[in-house]
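Practice problem. Given the sequence and the SMILES for adenosine-5'-triphosphate, write out the predicted structure.
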Amino acid sequence: MAFALGFVVRAAPALAAGFWGLLVLRALVPAGVVLSVGRLAAAAAAGDGDALARWGGVWLGALLAERLLDPLSGMVEGNLNERLTARVNRALMEKMNRFAGLEPFEDAAFYERVERLRREASYAPMNLSIFLGQVLLAALTALPLLLLVARWGWVYPPALLLSTLPYALAGVRLQRLVWETVVGTSPEARRMDYATGVVLSPDLAAETRLFASGGFWARFYERNFRALHARGRAVRRREVLVSGVYVLPSALGLGWTFGSVLKGGVGVGGVVEVTAALHRLQAELALLVEALGMLERSLYYMDELRAFLEAEPRITGGRLRLNPGPPEVVFENVSFRYPDGRVALADVSLRLEPGRTAALVGENGAGKTTFVKLLLRYYDPSEGRVLVDGVDLRELDLAAWRRRVSAVFQNFGRYALSLEENVRLADLEAREPAGPALAQAGAAELVSRLPAGAVTLLGKAFGGAELSGGEWQKVALARAFYRKAKLLVFDEPTAALDPRSEARLFARFAELARGRTALLVSHRLASVRTAGHIFVFKAGRLVEAGDHGGLLARGGEYAELWRLQSERYA
Ligand SMILES: Nc1ncnc2c1ncn2[C@@H]1O[C@H](COP(=O)(O)OP(=O)(O)OP(=O)(O)O)[C@@H](O)[C@H]1O
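Answer key:
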């Protein structure tokens, strides 16, 4: 609760203060109305014209205040909510950016939590302020009403509260049940979300149409919906039952108070006052119970948020900075298991010579991409060491190390930014234009074809120009070249390129990689045959190393892969 409150206050201190201040004012109004109505009735019965005018003024003032305060607090609430949502999203981004490794994306439970926090960011913290407001408003409204009732006997307020207690406890417990069984966290709700996501995804539209799998996903959705809905109905039935059963004691409390007060003889004004007060009080107490349940749900979100914000990144950088030349990288008996226990690299030892180009080849799942992930320290080895210029990678200043590296990954980014920005994203401090890097990537022609050249907005997200798969890959290559890095890592950099573009790139590669250490990852052996060192991986192990000629002569795994590939062309 302290965290949640602190979060709201820090998001917008002035707005939060205004919100609570208005709340107190709004809470006083109903008591004012009740009091003035009672006094009006008494004045009317006694024929007291002065009192009638006085209490009539109070009554009108209270009504007017209610009309004015409601929109005002609505405005403050709206502003506060926007600030809160932005603060949550900012906190999510800042925290995620602090994870230098990839572990938050690999841990399914953790990632699911992040996704949920993001999905609910636009309403859950807002709900917190709304329901916290409602709880406080109902409590604050009930308080003066209870004080009014107390004027007829101090026993009445505790009696009323006690009789409401069973209903309150059951109501809050039930809200928790609703949250756990029906709301977005249940597996069914997540599967429903997944199914709609598939059918509405532009990336999957071609496949779902060709394979006519849209109906499958609709049925998938339906099955999960039915399960969820059945549980939802059961919970709601219980809700009605609980309200019916537990409302009895509070009705008895009300009835007893009402009867006892009237028996005492309170006059006309008193009758009107006690009737109005009890009527309003039971409404406020019911509201309080409901809001408490909803508040608990919102606090659950804030607990999740807190747990996420307090999670400590596993990969943290050291302090050492090395000279910024082309690095020497040595893998020393490196093994690696993914968090799910799967062994992806087993006892790998190899050396990338500074200023030379090396290549990793091997079948699908051989461990090539995993090797790259360790090289860039997205993970630390389970065993062994990765040495850069003789120093353990874990001791290096991680940001400084990554600034020495540039890469094209298999799943490269396609950003809804201009072409120029897509490239310059690799080095936001550099002042050079993107043109030369685009030319190096073979994308000069693409620039001239786009309606606004390099400043053309790309991607469909905001209505920009869509590129072909190969064109996007050229943009990713340009991005990699734009950064003046000393280690280039290209993981399947030409998978989407046409043969001419691919041939051109590799013809220029030696020149592009001059003065840099470079690592090419590919199963297309023709692309890597010129590399000085070729490392052949199989099932997570380094099984051969050498140059193209040497590996062919050896007649092992590489020679076999080469034969299979060249046979297809022959
Ligand atoms: N995030 C992950 N969690 C668990 N296992 C993984 C993960 N990523 C990869 N693996 C497993 O690790 C092994 C090596 O995968 P890796 O991606 O390194 O192969 P690769 O040689 O790059 O394959 P490809 O040529 O298909 O890209 C595979 O068996 C794969 O299933």
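Check your answer against the key. The chain has two domains: 2-310, 329-569.
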